[in-house]
Write a structure and sequence with these properties.
Elements lengths: L1 E3 L9 H13 L2 E8 L2 E8 L1 E8 L4 E6 L2 H6 L3 H19 L9 H8 L3 H27 L7 H8 L14 H21 L3 H21 L4 H20 L4 H16 L12 H5 L6 H17 L4 H14 L7 H20 L3 H10 L7 H17 L3 H15 L2 H10 L1 H14 L6 H13 L3 H11 L2 H33 L2 H18 L2 H19 L6 E4 L9 H14 L9 H4 L4 H11 L6 H19 L11 H10 L3 E5 L5 H8 L7 E3 L12 H9 L7 E5 L2 H10 L2 E5 L2 H4 L4 E3 L7 H8 L1
Parallel strand pairs: 6-7, 6-9, 7-8, 9-10, 10-11
Antiparallel strand pairs: 1-5, 2-3, 3-4, 4-5
Helix pairs in contact: 1-3, 5-6, 5-7, 6-8, 7-8, 7-9, 8-9, 8-10, 12-13, 13-14, 14-15, 14-16, 15-16, 16-17, 17-18, 17-19, 18-19, 19-20, 20-21, 21-22, 22-23, 22-24, 25-28, 27-28
Bound molecules: 6-O-phosphono-alpha-D-glucopyranose and magnesium ion.
């Protein structure tokens, strides 16, 4: 009796199949012997039966049993059971092919003889009900035939509707995914056996089919992506193996065709297919056409702009190709940080460093710039590239004061790390910028530069910071540490009432006790207090009050330019000499003066509008000011004055003073701030300076005012303060003392000169 071994189930009556399968289940002991190449014998000993099976062409077999029913009807349950057992046996042999490659050639031989068209017909007919099982069978045997057509098979197995259109839905998607994953398992097995062309034969149609399905049914993207990822990862592994040139070409073709499709998309956490075949793309012509493809994608596929740009930059560099289109390059510049992030995801560290070089230092988005540098440092560290580490870590520590980056720098190049810190020490005086201070302190400590560390801590007068370092410093510099705390504690006691001061100091006292410095600090405080009492008598000057515009910051010029512009708009060109009359005077006062001088009559509403307009011009002009606009020596003078124990106030006629101080980041330098909102009368009226002295709890006779305007000098003197004129003696001659600029003097010199 002739039967197809593959299709046992469909060649017999349903009842007979059931009977056969029952017998299979009941057969507990049996052997399959192979007396010669195409002859198999199934011997069952419990229950007893024996069946001969002869292999014919095309997967057909001739089966023979010796029982009475067989003799009569040419079939019996033994024959059917034996067929099942043999098939099972052959499949099993196929699965353990690696182990028993030689022994199972016979099985392979037999399966190879089956006609692929028969297999396909069979599988598609039963795809709906038993698809997964059939696919497994097919996957196990198909690769043995010469030209397996997985592409058509996949199509056959994909459900179609009555119009012949592919239809997948919630019910059949599971079966479809099952089939695909069985094929992928088969591909994985083949890959393990180093059968690369066979692996690719399965992967190519599977990947193509999945891409097509996802493009057609985006709703199933998430589910199908699971198989797609597996397939792409396996493809990646294949591409990493030494491959025959023909296979390489096939892989490139697949990647190129797939990527050219309009519906191509990148799959998360896998590399783009074109990147996988990149090592085989050696011909210049091919490279150019790939670059061309990517350039086109950049223009059209906006959704994946970054992914495509990443590839373009990578290949531009690796293949030494110029990016022809300027438009593309410009687009890339704005995408560079995103590209860097993408490369980081793809673990493309060398390219990342290359792209980082393309990123302009003055890149507008500072946050993105910083992230790029951080990723760059990570890449440089992973690749142990000292040159890059030094460059990037220096930038991160100089511009963003990153302690970790500086540490990395120190590890790879100590000299460079020291250089950065020296630079920062010069650039930032203590207290000017907190993050800079934190890095500097940390670094000085790590570098054991204790002298510098102490100096900065003394300048900062911040007990919390000192507490971080004093345990070490105490060993060799206990005197200085004691002095620091004594000064600090005295400062707190002077600034706050007893109860609050004690609350604030509690922490410090217990810290000092733990350091065993408590009594030393207490002693120091006592000697300081007696010395202070001695000095009190002849101490004349205890406070400084500073005008703002023209004294601390270079904004006087912007005030004058704003007036000039305004008056020009109403038809008048004002004289340079008018600066002396508007400098120091309030906004309205200045406007009145100018209108008067140039004979312009305005109603009070008009005046209000003009004053507002002038202020807008002024605000626009100072929009961009930063601590760099502080006048030379001003900040240092403030810091030194504070160190000298003086109380400091600001006394400005400007209503914008607080805003300006904020931009300069120096509000903290003053004990009191008085601005244009605090005085009704404009300088030369003394009101503002009387109020400033009062705010410092000082008699005006103990206060020195610093002024750049003649009106200001007059006001200071009228208040009963001392006055230092800053600028030209010809206009400021009334002052007690005139100096060119704060950088040319020191608090001590001023006090000495005026005492
Ligand atoms: C300072 C300037 C003056 C200015 C005045 C009012 O003292 O020296 O030129 O007129 O402030 O400024 P405001 O910002 O309130 O217009
Ligand atoms: Mg001024």
């Amino acid at each position: 009796m002739r039967v197809s071994l593959i299709d046992i189930e469909n060649q017999f009556d349903h009842h007979l199949i059931e009977e056969g399968l029952d017998l299979v289940r009941a057969t507990t002991e049996y052997t399959v012997q192979q007396p010669d190449l195409a002859h198999f014998q199934v011997h069952a000993s419990n229950p007893v039966y024996q069946v001969d099976i002869l292999m014919l062409q095309d997967g057909l077999v001739n089966v023979k049993c010796y029982c009475a029913p067989f003799k009569k009807s040419k079939y019996c349950k033994h024959a059917i059971a034996a067929l099942f057992l043999l098939r099972e046996n052959l499949q099993h042999a196929r699965k353990s092919r690696v182990k028993s490659r030689h022994e199972s050639t016979v099985t392979d031989e037999a399966l190879r003889k089956m006609k692929i068209t028969d297999l396909r017909k069979f599988v598609s007919a039963y795809a709906v009900s038993h698809a997964v099982f059939k696919a497994e069978l097919l996957a196990n045997t198909l690769h043995l035939t010469r030209k397996p057509d997985y592409a058509s098979m996949l199509l056959d197995l994909t459900p179609i509707d009555k119009y012949g259109q592919i239809r997948i839905n919630r019910n059949n998607i599971k079966t479809l995914r099952g089939i695909i994953s069985i094929l992928l398992k088969q591909a994985q097995q083949l890959f393990k056996e180093k059968a690369l062309p066979e692996t690719f034969q399965i992967l190519e149609p599977v990947i193509n089919h999945l891409y097509r399905l996802i493009a057609k049914f985006p709703a199933y993207q998430q589910q199908l992506s699971i198989e797609l990822k597996t397939a792409l990862r396996l493809f990646e592994l294949v591409c990493l193996q030494p491959m025959a040139p023909r296979l390489q070409q096939a892989a490139i073709k697949m990647a190129f065709d797939l990527s050219s499709r309009e519906s191509y998309f990148f799959v998360k956490s896998t590399l783009p297919v074109l990147r996988l075949v990149e090592p085989f793309v050696l011909e210049q012509k091919l490279r150019k056409s790939i670059i061309h493809l990517v350039e086109e994608k950049i223009k059209t596929d906006h959704q994946n702009l970054i992914a495509w740009s990443t590839l373009l930059l990578r290949w531009g560099k690796a293949w030494h190709l110029q990016l022809k289109s300027k438009e593309i390059f410009n687009r890339l510049i704005s995408q560079l940080p995103a590209i860097i992030q993408e490369m980081n995801q793809q673990k493309d560290y060398e390219d990342l460093l290359y792209v980082l070089q393309l990123l302009p230092e003055d890149y507008a988005d500072k946050t993105q710039y910083r992230i790029s540098l951080q990723l760059g440092l990570k890449a440089a560290l992973l690749l142990s590239s000292e040159k890059d580490i030094v460059q990037i870590a220096s930038a991160l520590s100089r511009q963003y004061f990153e302690i970790e980056a500086w540490e990395a720098l120190l590890h790879s190049n100590e000299a460079a790390a020291k250089k950065v810190i020296r630079h920062l020490q010069q650039q930032y005086v203590a207290g000017q910028h907190e993050p800079a201070d934190l890095l500097i302190l940390h670094a000085l400590n790590v570098l054991h530069l204790e002298g510098d560390l102490l100096d900065r801590l003394m300048d900062l007068q911040d007990a919390e910071l000192m507490m971080e370092y004093d345990r070490e410093l105490k060993k060799d510099h206990s005197d200085t540490v004691v002095k620091f705390y004594a000064i600090y504690i005295r400062g707190i006691k002077e600034a706050y009432g007893g109860l609050i001061a004690r609350q604030k100091l509690n922490n410090i006292f217990s810290h000092l006790k733990s350091l065993d410095l408590y009594s030393a600090v207490a002693d120091k405080l006592k000697t300081m207090d007696t010395r202070k009492a001695d000095n009190q008598e002849n101490k004349v000057i205890e406070g400084f009050v500073f005008d703002l515009d023209g004294v601390i910051v270079d904004t006087a010029i912007h005030h004058f330019q704003a007036w000039k512009k305004l008056l020009k708009e109403i038809g008048v060109t004002i004289a340079d000499e008018d600066d002396h009359h508007t400098r120091g005077a309030s906004r309205m006062e200045s406007l009145e003066y100018l209108l008067n001088k140039y004979g312009l009559k305005k109603t009070s509403e008009e005046k209000l509008e003009l004053a507002t307009r002038k202020n807008e011009y002024y605000l626009k002009a100072i929009e961009q000011i930063t601590p760099d606009d502080l006048l030379p020596g001003a900040l240092q003078f403030l810091i030194d004055s504070r160190k000298a124990g003086l109380s400091l106030a600001l006394g400005s006629a400007s209503k914008n003073a607080r805003g300006v101080l904020e931009k300069l980041d120096i509000e903290d330098q003053f004990d009191a701030i008085l601005d244009g909102n605090d005085a009704k009368e404009s300088k030369p009226d003394p009101e503002i300076f009387i109020k400033a002295s009062a705010a410092l709890h000082l008699d005006p006779s103990r206060v020195v005012v610093f002024e750049d305007a003649a009106k200001g000098v007059q006001a200071a003197l009228a208040a009963g303060c001392h006055c230092v004129g800053l600028g030209d003696a010809s206009t400021l001659g009334a002052a007690d003392l005139v100096v060119a600029s704060l950088k040319d003097t020191s608090p001590q010199q001023i006090i000495k000169a005026l005492s």
